[in-house]
Amino acid sequence: MSNSPEIPETPLTPHAVTAAEVVPGDLVALSRDEAERRQWCVAMHTLPESPETIRVTLRPPLGGPDREAVLTRGQEVVVAGRRVDVTAVPAVSSPRLDAVEFRDGDSVTRLRAVDPDGVEVTYRRRWGVWHRDLDTRTAQTVTDDTVRGWAADADRAGYVVRHHGRPAREPSGAGPRRVVVTGLGAMTPLGAGVDELWQGLLAGRHGIRKLTGEEFAELPVRTAGVVPVDPAALLPRAAARRMNRAAQFAVLAAREAWGDAGFAEGGTRESGLDPERVGVSLGAILGDASVLVGGDRKLREKGPRAVSPLTTPMTVPSQAASQVSLDLHITGEARTVTSACASGTEAIGEAVDRIRYGRVDVALAGGAEAVVTPAIMASFAAMRALSDLDLADGVSPSRPFAADRAGFVNGEGAGILVLEAEEHARARGARIYCEAAGWGLSADAHHMAAPDPSGSGVALALRRAVRDAGGYVVDVVHVNAHATATTEGDLAEAGALRAVLGEGGGVPVTALKGHLGHLQGAAGGVEAVAAALTLHHGLVPPTVGCAQVDEEIALDVVTNAPRALPQNGDLVLSNSFGFGGHNAVLALRRVR
Questions:
Q1: Are 581 and 451 in contact (CB under 8 A)?
Q2: Quick one: DSSP state of residue 114?
Q3: Contact call for residues 401 and 495 (beta carbons, < 8 A)
Q4: pLDDT tens for the chain, residues 1 to 592
Q5: Which residues contact 173 (CB under 8 A, 6 or more apart)?
């Protein structure tokens, strides 16, 4: 119910009259104090009660119950200067809600009916409380008892309160399918495998090391997040020789995720799957730049005959995706997404949509990268983007959100998730980590390398991810931040999170690049693996290297020790932002 269209939108012009001058249709306040508080009623009927008195029937102008007042003829009252069609004012009474069992999804409308310009306000119940705005965490909220009190007091206080149960769900027809995460795999600076990653995150360890190779000797910065095992040693020699380092990481992570999802070793045929209904979607910026550099060196030193015929197929960024499809015999599709440091997250989002809309039933999605090479390191150093902090004190030189952050640390690795249509997963009795609920993209259109300091592009991607997940901002319980430990990037992301989640919104935020360094195109995949584990275990890892949070960040950054994941929500956001203004956000949902 909103303000009645029968009441003309003209200013109120209160003036005093005697009760004898009141006629049906007048807006009346029985005292100047009531007029000042905009507490008006419509005179529905007037009836002489005696030679000295008049009985007036009054009703709130936007609807409500009638009440009667006996006034002396000379008694001063206030009229508003508006006339109302009495037949257009509904007679309603607000029902009590004491016996109603509220459920999330219900709504309550509340209208101050005694104010002719009153506007109906809607509250929606979610996570056990009533929100005035589900997309603003800091908006007003009230309890069930407050809503019941509104209804009980409505008629006396001049309000109309209505309860609306959540709509019944219609049987779902053809439409987007729900996508779930059933397997996880990782190769990271914390070690080989998901368990090494997760235990290292919870323990607050970091995997950033000194680069000791002579090719790095002359560089101004010689620290990086390097995978501590040789991936080639974990693969058959003949296969490893035909893969670049990033592809080796990807195949190992994919094998782990495949087995973790409950599929048989070897691939689709051994698992009884139609290979045409399975896909691969991986992100990479370069993949492995060392192959091209090595080929160029051989050309210059020994001539064209020394250049391997495998140089080109091992150089392309798509090699990781193609090698995963070869290794597991996946023929549905093998796609590569290249969108700077947002590549891994965007690749996961693309796979979510491919499953949603029936193109495939299962997908391995994430990112793989191996760009810890002298030229790349020198380029980042020339940009003054790399941290030059020392490893000697045992503190990670990558310090996201910290007051003393000094830039990012280059890294390598792979993180891959098995995504699956929910009905496909449940039909085979798979363990489900979480739902891959939605994702959002945007572009800064600001600078080839620097982020937009306003954070508006990041905020847009955040909102789109929440909306694509079919959720609201109040559902967000945790953010796995991109947070590279650069001054400009951390501040832009923090500003965007405050803009979307609200100042002091109370959402715990963590950043993993203190543990890992920046894994470039693989960062989104590895961080999505961690976000899925956060939902599955109900624990938020701490942010390593952040001894003192920069005051300008103004977020609830989790430091020192893991923290229990809040229960009053179900969405975790995993952020990735890249050079050139690429913004991608993945939304994962807790499966209860």
A1: yes
A2: T
A3: no
A4: 444 445 456 688 999 999 999 999 999 999 999 999 999 999 999 999 999 999 999 999 999 999 999 999 999 999 998 889 999 999 999 999 999 999 999 999 999 999 999 999 999 999 999 999 999 988 889 999 999 999 999 999 999 999 999 987 665 556 799 999 999 999 999 999 999 999 999 999 999 999 999 999 999 999 999 999 999 999 999 999 999 999 999 999 999 999 999 999 999 999 999 999 999 999 999 977 777 777 777 778 888 887 787 777 778 889 999 999 999 999 999 999 999 999 999 999 999 999 999 999 999 999 999 999 999 999 999 999 999 998 977 899 999 999 999 999 999 999 999 999 999 999 999 999 999 999 999 999 999 888 999 999 999 999 999 999 999 999 999 999 999 999 999 999 999 999 999 987 689 999 999 999 999 999 999 999 999 999 999 999 999 999 999 999 999 999 999 999 999 999 999 999 998 999 999 999 999 7
A5: none
Is residue 75 a contact partner of residue 19, using CB atoms and an 8 Å limit? yes
CA distance 519 to 197: 13
Q: How far apart are CA 398 and CA 418, in angstroms?
A: 29
Residues 178-205 as b or e (16 or more Cβ within 10 Å = b): bbbbbbbbbbbbbbbbbebbbebbbebe
Task: Copy the structure tokens of residue 386.
Answer: 């790399």
CB 81 within 8 A of CB 64: no
Residues annotated as catalytic are 341, 482, 518
- Asked if 57 and 66 count as a contact pair (C-beta separation under 8 A), the reply is yes
Single-letter residue type at 40: W
Pairing of strands 191-192, 179-188: antiparallel
Q: Write out the two tokens for 543.
A: 């942010």
Closest among 529, 249, 547, 179 to 393, alpha carbons compared: 547
Contact 557, 551 (CB under 8 A): no
User: CA 118 to CA 539: how far, in whole Å?
Assistant: 46
DSSP 22-55: --TTEEEESSHHHHHTT--EEEEEEEE-SSSEEE
Residue pair 104/166 in contact by the 8 Å Cβ criterion: yes
Chain center to CA of 107: 24
Contact 567/467 with Cβ under 8 angstroms? Answer: no
Q: How far apart are CA 419 and CA 180, in angstroms?
A: 6
**Cα–Cα distance, 149 to 147 (Å, whole number):** 5
Q: Tell me if 306 sits within 8 A of 299, measured CB to CB.
A: yes
Q: Are 348 and 268 within 8 A, CB to CB?
A: no
Contact present, 437 and 535 (Cβ < 8 Å): no
Residue 537 structure tokens? 């275990």
DSSP 510: E
Which pTM was predicted? 0.90
Rounded to the nearest 10 degrees, the angle between the axes of helix 343-356 and helix 523-537 is 60
Scan for tokens 């079919």, then name that residue: 470
- 509 neighbors 479 (Cβ within 8 angstroms): yes
Q: Scanning the structure block, which residue is given the tokens 């960024």? A: 317
Tokens 């200013």 belong to which residue? Answer: 11
